[in-house]
Amino acid sequence: MNGTNTITDITTEMMLPGSDYIFTFTPQLTIPFVGGQATIDLDIYPTDQTYTTLTYNDTISRTLDLKLQPEDPIAINDTVPLLTSAILTAIHQTGTRLLWYSDIFRS
User: Fold this and answer.
1) Dihedrals φ, ψ of 55, to 5°?
2) pTM here?
3) Which residues of 73-86 are buried (b: 16+ CB within 10 A; e: fewer)?
4) Burial profile 25-37: b = 16 or more Cβ within 10 angstroms, e = fewer
């Protein structure tokens, strides 16, 4: 991420037990997706131990398995005259896989 293995950012906001907290990194993270996926090991811990008596339980560690959300597909309707052929070309976003699906409704 961002060309380094470790990114450090600091907040002075209080995080209370059982509460939700939204943190925005500055600058925003650049996550390298490979094959449409990325894994991030996230460790959150306090640097100020003023308000804690048990420091061994002050770290939150999570592994995030992320998947790149591809851009919305663009479909173009075209008419192919009877007894002629057509060439279909599919282009997909870099870092994602191209998947073909059959039309289950036969429409």
Assistant:
1) -80, -15
2) 0.51
3) eeeeeeeeeeeeee
4) eeeeeeeeeeebe
